[in-house]
Structures are given as structure tokens and as C-alpha cells.
TrEMBL record:
Organism: Kordiimonas lacus
Protein name, per record: DUF2306 domain-containing protein
TM regions (residue ranges): 6-27, 39-58, 78-104, 116-137, 143-164, 176-198, 210-229
UniProt KW keywords: Membrane, Transmembrane, Transmembrane helix
Membrane is among the record's keywords: yes
Record carries keyword Membrane: yes
Organism lineage: Bacteria, Pseudomonadati, Pseudomonadota, Alphaproteobacteria, Kordiimonadales
């Protein structure tokens, strides 16, 4: 099982680097152009591989530890890590999937309101609640990190459900949703890289009061960036954000 876990781990790392490299091309490329679509797909598929490999890696280790004589207390750091990475993988998958789905039906998103698609939104909410419950009840070493990142699902889950149920009032709702979802997936990618990749690759050790900076820095940058970017495009399209009551019939 150790060899199998190593395969999953190196697959995860390789796909992660490919995804990180591909991510920035569509960000700056002309939207809808060849490079935007080509590298966007590369990021999408790399993301799916990253998520799958991460889940399989966590799963094989969890099975091995469950069959061992270790107590829960002895493996507390692993379970905290597993919860964090599992939640990060869930959010990444949901963002990638939602960001792709909104391109399928731009005029009437309610046509996408299948049980499987709505499960993306509800899954994000349930994932957040589960992480919060684990952090509060168990209080692992990474409690601060789990509580800092857990609201993501509570924020994006209702937005996804609302989008599929037709609560988006703008005709370009698919544009803002696609952009926000991909930025969200990018936040997850960069969080994983800073926490698990950069610290080992460049031998960077952040200690003391700044120890949690790598865990939350992408979120602190990405969320405001998404808000600024959406505001920019709404101004460009002369498309101010309206409530359902203010939307034109």
C-alpha cells in the first residue's frame, strides 16, 4: 500500500504543477480566445487529477491507519491533515465542475438544475459544516486553519444552488460565475502549493504568529481580487448588480 500511496502522491504533485502553470494563462489571455480555452482545459483536467489523486492518497493512508493499533490521539495530526486536504479537494472539485457547467447553458441556468448539479452546492455547505464541527469538537492542531477556510463552502454553496434555481438576474451571470469559480479553484490550488509544496521544495519554514499565513494567504488575496474583477467587468458591460426585484422583466 505504501507504493500505491507514493504513486498517488507523485501523480498529485505532477498534476498540481501542471495546473499551476496552466492557471495563469487564461487569467491574462483574451477571454474566449484559443489560449484561454486551451490552457483553461489543461487547468481543468489537471485539477481533476489532483483531486482524484489526493482523495486516493488520503484514503489509502486512512485505511492503513484504521487497520493499525494506533489510537485516534496518536493519529490526531494525520486526521486533521486529512480533513483539511479532503475539504480542499471537495471545494476544488466543486469549483471546477460548477465553473464548467455554467458554460453549458448561458441563457437559462435552470436547465442545469439536476439533482447531481444541485448536490455541488449542498455538498459545499455540508463540507463546511462538517469541518467546523470537527474543529470545534476535536480541536486539532490545525483548528485555526480549519475554521479560517471552512466558511468557503457556506459562501459558495448557496450561490451555486441559487444560480441553478434561476436567482441570477444578469444575462452575463454565467460570465461572473465562471470567473469566480475558476478563481476559487485557483485559491485552492495555491493554498495547497504554499502549504505542502513551497515549504518543502524551497525549505521555507514559517513559524510563530505567521505560521498560518501560507494556509490563508491565497484566500486573503483571491477573494478581494474576484470582487474587484467582477466589479470591473460589470462596469465594462454596464451591468450593475441587481436584486431579483430590481431585475428587468
Amino acid at each position: 500500500m505504501d507504493m500505491l500511496n507514493q504513486i498517488f502522491l507523485y501523480t498529485h504533485i505532477t498534476a498540481g504543477f501542471i495546473g499551476l502553470a496552466a492557471y495563469w494563462v487564461p487569467i491574462f489571455a483574451k477571454k474566449g480566445a484559443v489560449n484561454h480555452r486551451r490552457f483553461g482545459k489543461a487547468f481543468l483536467y489537471a485539477g481533476y487529477v489532483v483531486v482524484t489523486a489526493a482523495v486516493l492518497s488520503i484514503g489509502t493512508r486512512a485505511i492503513r491507519y484504521a487497520l493499525s493499533d494506533y489510537s485516534f490521539e496518536q493519529l490526531e495530526s494525520f486526521w486533521g491533515f486529512a480533513i483539511f486536504l479532503g475539504y480542499l479537494s471537495l471545494v476544488t472539485f466543486i469549483m471546477l465542475r460548477f465553473g464548467t457547467l455554467v458554460l453549458w447553458e448561458k441563457k437559462d441556468p435552470t436547465k442545469l438544475a439536476s439533482a447531481a448539479n444541485l448536490a455541488l452546492g449542498y455538498g459545499a455547505i455540508i463540507g463546511s459544516v462538517a469541518v467546523i464541527a470537527y474543529a470545534v469538537l476535536v480541536r486539532p492542531e490545525v483548528t485555526v486553519v480549519l475554521l479560517a477556510l471552512s466558511p468557503i463552502g457556506l459562501l459558495v454553496g448557496p450561490q451555486i444552488v441559487g444560480y441553478f434555481k434561476g436567482r441570477e438576474t444578469s444575462k452575463r451571470g454565467w460570465w461572473y460565475s465562471h470567473m469566480g469559480a475558476m478563481i476559487g479553484a485557483g485559491i485552492a490550488f495555491h493554498t495547497a502549493f504554499l502549504v505542502f509544496g513551497a515549504t518543502r521544495l524551497f525549505d521555507i519554514g514559517v513559524e510563530g504568529p505567521f505560521a498560518f499565513v501560507p494556509w490563508i494567504l491565497p484566500t486573503l488575496i483571491g477573494v478581494p481580487a474576484n470582487m474587484i474583477w467582477e466589479r470591473h467587468y460589470r462596469k465594462k458591460f454596464d451591468d450593475p448588480k441587481r436584486s431579483k426585484l430590481e431585475a428587468p422583466a
